[in-house]
Structures are given as structure tokens and as C-alpha cells.
Fold these 2 entries.
Entry 1:
Amino acid sequence: MQKVVIIGATSAIAEATARLYAARGAQLFLVARNAARLDDISADLRVRGSQDVFHASLDVNDLHEHARVINQIWTTLGHVDVALLAHGTLPDQVQCETSVDVAMKEFATNGTSTIALLTAMASRFEAQRKGVIAIISSVAGDRGRQSNYLYGSAKAAVSAFASGLRQRLSKVGVNVLTIKPGFVDTPMTRDFKKGALWAKPDGIAHGIVRAADRGRSVVYLPWFWLPIMLIIQHIPEFVFKRIKL
Ligand SMILES: NC(=O)c1ccc[n+]([C@@H]2O[C@H](COP(=O)([O-])OP(=O)(O)OC[C@H]3O[C@@H](n4cnc5c(N)ncnc54)[C@H](OP(=O)(O)O)[C@@H]3O)[C@@H](O)[C@H]2O)c1
């Protein structure tokens, strides 16, 4: 039986992923800031087949609370097979340009909090010498674009951190998986006009579980974002400055 921890468990992508693990009979430990939703999701996951569902409340920006929650997770489960970090916000880029406070808060939610959680969890995984740490970054982290470079820079920090952590923990049998979704139809993107490039949380969840099972390092979801981002990354700066993305 797999033991799975999900931080940001009320996210649409996280919930869809939790359902897949529940159907396998996994033991789940859910962490999120909305306690009422955690109760509802936990009840649903039990019906869907999860052996046990535990949960704890955490605002990820409350860094001093991280150690307590991580302690609670390992005390409850003993060890962790898969940890998925899924929390995030999509900041208003214009607000981030006019308010340093908003910009720093959004960077903390999408970047610093994840790095803090990974730092604390890494030593636990290192000690148990097995498991998968899966982090939802974003294609937005592959190149800063004027439409969302605050979010993109936070995700870039997460992707770079995950790369270094992967190299370190691979020596002790722990896999670090970086997940880079493109556009996904979730509450985060509620106000966006949807088109052909948009994916549903269910499809992303299947991709996450498959990549974790297969010991992948970095996965673009859906796969076609890999060639798209290769092109975007290779646009020369003199051209990039003239276009609007
Ligand atoms: N949707 C996309 O197009 C897309 C694309 C690429 C990457 N991603 C990434 O995918 C992940 C999941 O996002 P989603 O699309 O599933 O969006 P979502 O349904 O809006 O989920 C975002 C989650 O983050 C949680 N969260 C935000 N701030 C938090 C905080 N301070 N403390 C604890 N939890 C906090 C939210 O909790 P509350 O319910 O309490 O607000 C919510 O559960 C995120 O990392 C996101 O950046 C999404």
C-alpha cells in the first residue's frame, strides 16, 4: 500500500491525482489551508477506496508551521512513498508591477514556500532512502514572459531548486519529479478563454501518477508543451523583446 502526501490538496489537479491514488487503496495525508474542504475531500477519497485519509491545515506562507506539519506526517505514516507539492496562485501581473508587497507575497506562495517545504522534506526522504518527491512547477518557469513573469520567475526558482535536489537525492534512491503543466482548466484559470491547448485536471493527474511510477525526472503535461517551450526558449532576445507573450 502506497503512502501519499499531498500539499495544496484542495487544488483541482491535486484532488484529481488523489482520486487516482485512492482508487489504488493508498493511504493519504492531505495538507491544505481550507479545513472544511479537506473534510469533504477526505470523505470522498475514503469512498473511492483510500485505506486511510489523514489531514492537516497549513497556510504554506506560515513557514514556522512547516516543521510541525512535516513531523505530523512522518509520525502518522512512518514513511512516505510519494509527496506531491501542488499549491499555487496565479498572480495579477499588473498588480505585481505596482506593488512590491503583492509581488513578494506571490513569489512567496509560488516559490519560497515550496523551497522551504522541499528543504524540510528532503532530509526525511534522505533518511528513509526511498520515495518520490513530485513538484508541480509550470511551463511558465521556462522563460520569463511579460504577461506573467512574477509567477514565471517563482516557478523557475522551483524548477532550478528541484533540479539540484534531484541530483543530490538520486544518490540515495529518492526521485525528484518536476511537473510542468501548460494551460489547465481549474479554478486558477477560471477567467481565461479556453482553447485547443487547454487540458483537464484528470488528464494532468494521470500524467503525474504515470511519471511518478516510472521514475521520470521532468515531465511536460500534456507532452506537446515540450516542443512548444523549446521553441519559446530559443527565440533570440532581439526578437523576443519585440513580441508580446
Ligand atoms: N491551472 C493551470 O493552468 C496551471 C498550469 C501550470 C501549473 N499549474 C500549477 O498547478 C498547481 C495546482 O493548481 P491548480 O491549477 O490545480 O489550481 P487551483 O485549483 O486554484 O489550486 C491552487 C491551490 O493552491 C492552494 N493555495 C494557494 N495559496 C495557498 C497558501 N498560502 N497555503 C496553502 N494552500 C494555498 C489553494 O488553496 P485554497 O483552496 O485554500 O485557496 C488551492 O488549493 C499550482 O502549483 C499551479 O501553479 C497550474
Entry 2:
Amino acid sequence: MNQIPVKDVTPKKGNGDKETFDLYAKREHIYVKYYKGFFKNFRIISGAIMLLMFYGFPWLQWDGRQAVLFDLPERQFHVFGMTFWPQDFMLLSWLLIILAFTLFFVTVFAGRLWCGYACPQFVWTWLFIWAERVTEGDRNKRIRLDKSTMSKDKAVRKGAKHLLWLLIAAASAIAFVGYFSPIRELVPNLFSFELGPWEMWWLAFFTVATYGNAGWLREQVCIYMCPYARFQSVMFDQDTLIISYDEKRGEKRGSRKKGADYKAQGLGDCIDCGNCVHVCPVGIDIRDGLQYECVACGACVDACDDIMDRMGYPRGLVRYTTEHQLEGKKTHLLRPRLIGYFVALIAMFSAFAYTLYSRVPLEVDIIRDRGQLYTTTPSGLIENVYTLKIANKEQNDHTYRISVSGIDGMTLVSEPVVDIAAGELLDYPIRLHVPPSDLEKPNYDIQFTVEAVDATSIRVTEENRFIGPAPSR
Ligand code: SF4
Ligand code: SF4
């Protein structure tokens, strides 16, 4: 059997054991105990905001269409009145880099805040834990229920739990697919059995994925699958806010009667009640020190504060603190790495905001006719032919005026005004004529300008070349 030593356990009870674990050990089910407290309320508020946004955004309307819709067949992404095309992919890359830097910044400052309060995996896990408690009862009841033989009560409770889990998972899948397929058509079509095959597939897939991840896998997703859990510790320093047990104050741990002079018995403030372990959704004991499994949810802080209140001891035996603070040293909130991340973040965010603000919802590509460099018309003019690919990236129809410049005497032969519907791409052939007497060299840089007639701020100028015969001397 493969066994490896994992850590030296501080000899808190005087035995100095070396803990080992079996690589193929069966996962122990975690029965999370109900608790109350400040950090729980904070987590409920942040989770509720996130769930409200996730379920609500697909139902919002903006300018008569779904406010957030990633229309993959049309390759258009509508976000609150703005339409992004695949050509705007650079903006998405910028946004992802900014989000990554925000995560680094927050992690250096306050550890795994993201995991504890905003990560979808844990927001849904807490939702599923709530459903478990509603249907099967709190921790001790659930343990007894799992140990008991099958009965009508057990079957009803287990059935209700899985039904509730499946309902939450299905609602989440509908909301998710609703970001890609208009939700106001998706839902009626679902109930009238008129969904297309890909919508059916993705609804089934996300229902099963949510049910499996939040109902069964839970902390294993964080421990074994999430890359952030693995690399976040390298961003920690001794001034990073972490949730920690104050060993100096808590040890030697042990039970005692309320009001007893425990210090005279050589005991610390930890009454060894195990509450901090019973509320932990990843099943670790915070008293063993900082562990990479810890998602910084604050449950152990709330649970221990509650015990401290009941015992009449000061709160904060388990608390948000820093390694420096625990060692009795000064904590430096402003430090070079944090300032560096902050400056980089501000610079990137400003550049992103400026690019977004100054973005013109019009795309013009010019393709020169590759068949012939130029032709001569019956009236002796030099002709060049182009195709203008004009994309109206707005959610309104527009009329555009096309003009050219760069050579005296150049005329645009084609109709200079075109109508393009919202979100449409038009291939528009253009012919330009120049009298040979105006050409002093064989090729010229010329400019095409396309401008919305009703909104002159929507204007794009692109360069191309006009080619003619070499002038005769
Ligand atoms: S909840 Fe507090 S008192 Fe109870 S075991 Fe944990 S650290 Fe000790
Ligand atoms: S140790 Fe505390 S903060 Fe960390 S996951 Fe467990 S309960 Fe949450």
C-alpha cells in the first residue's frame, strides 16, 4: 500500500505522531454543521448577489433584445447595448488579464477571498448544503440518517434532497444556456418539447455537471481540480490576511467547566469542542495551521466566536490575521508587491476603459481586386476595383456615406450611400476612376472613409493603394 508522510503534527497532546494518509483512501463524507455569524452573513450576501446576476441577466432586455446574449451562430456577443464581434477578441483577452491581475492583487492582500465568497463552485456548494439541511436536517441528524437502515422516512428525505438538487441544477443549466440561446424562447420551447438537439444536450450536460460538482464532488473540485488552489500559496507573504488559529492563546486545548479557572489548570482558550472542524466545508482542522485545502470561507471564525461568546472569552481565537501579527510583529498592509499589482491594475483598467469608450461600432476592411492591377475605361480613365466589407457593429440600423481621397481628380463611380442593418456585414463593390493626366507615379496611397450619416462619431478611415500605368515621359 502506498503511504507517504504528509506533515509533522505539532505534538499538541504530547504524542508527536507523524500523520500519514493512503493515496487511494476512500473519501470521507463531510457533514457540515449549521452555524451563524458575521462571515456567514457576508457570504450569503455576496452569494445572493452572484446568483441574482447569474439567473437574472438573461431575462433583462436592452433596446428590445436580450441584454446579455452570446450569439454563437451569428458570431455576435451582445452585452448591455454593445455588440462585440470576433474581431474584438483582443478586448476579451484584456478583460481576462485584468481579472487575473485583480485575483492576484486580492490574493496578496487578503488570501483566498475569491474562493470563500465568490467562486461559483462554492456558491453552489453552499446552496446544495442548504438544500441538504432543509431535507435531511442538521449534521447529527444527517449522520444518523446515513447510518440507519432504509426506511420510508429515509427514502422520502433522500428523494426530496436529490429532487431539490436536480431542480437547482436544472434552473442553473437553463440560465446558463440562456446566455447563448434567447431565454424567452428557450423556456417556452423547453416546456413544449420543441428544443433543438444542441440545446437539449447542453441543458442535460450542465444539469448533470452542476448536480455532480455541487452535490457530490464539492471540495474535491477545489482540492484536486482547481489550479488556483495550487498556486495561490506562492502569492502569500507574511502580511497576507489569512484565517488562522491563535496557537499561543488556544493551547493547551482541553475541555473545562464554564467559569472554571482554566489557566490554573494549564489550559488555553480552546475548549476542544471541535465546532471549527464540524462547520468546515472542506473537512480540515484550522488548528493544524494554514492548509492549501482551506477556502477561507470564515465558517471556523464564526463557529469559534460563538463558542468564545458562550464561554465569556474574548472573540478571535480563530480569526483573520497575518503571520507577522501572530508572531507579535507589525503587519505591513502597503508593501511593494501589492503596490506593483495595484499600479499595473490601474494602468490596465484605464487602457481597457479608454479602448472600450473610444471603440467605434463600425468595421471596414478593403480588399483590392486581385484579378487586374488596373483597367482603362472606354473613355480613357484609369479604373481600380475594390470590395469594401462594412460591418455595422451597432444594435441600430445605419446609413453610411463612403468617400475617398488621396489623388486630385479621383472620382467614386459607385453609389456613395449604403444602408446596413444592425449587426449586418455588407460586401460592397467600389470602382474608382482617375484621369491618366492626374497620375504622376504608378501607385498612390489613398484613403476610404465610411461615416454614419446620422452619427458622425461613427467614422472609420482605412488606407489602400491605387495603381495606374507608369507615366510616359
Ligand atoms: S471552535 Fe474554537 S474552541 Fe472549539 S475547538 Fe475550534 S478553536 Fe477550539
Ligand atoms: S478552515 Fe475555516 S476558513 Fe478554511 S475552509 Fe475550513 S471553515 Fe473555511
